[in-house]
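Q: Here's a chain of 135 amino acids. Please give me its 3D structure as tokens.
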Amino acid sequence: MASVLLVDDDMGWLGSLGVAIAAEGYIVRTATDGEHALSLAEAAPPDVVVTDCAMPGLNGVGLIRVMLSDPKLAQIPVILISDSRRRPSVPCACFMSKPFPVLALLRQLKVVERRRRGGKHSLLGAAVNHFSRIR
């Protein structure tokens, strides 16, 4: 069973997505900011991180940058979500603009999981090998 670290400061959004992802058989851990997400990922690296861009403190873009600087975390694929349609200039496995159908996120999780099993699971490698943009 793959594990997902879900990061967003909106508790309603976090709860709704967490339930939907868990219903698909994933193990879900949640964090409301980048600092908490980082400590969870360092303690037990997830198979994939789904993070919002805009959060107080360490935001999603900052979280990705910190993960890339840590060899233990740099290989974890990240799905970056945002209220903006502009994709930040950080590598990620997928960028999704809110609002999006939950099914679109679930499809992207399956794509990332297949890539991970196929050996193409690095954060940067996934961005170079395949870029997805969901509206």
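Q: Can you summarize the key feature?
A: The chain is about 40% helix and 20% strand.
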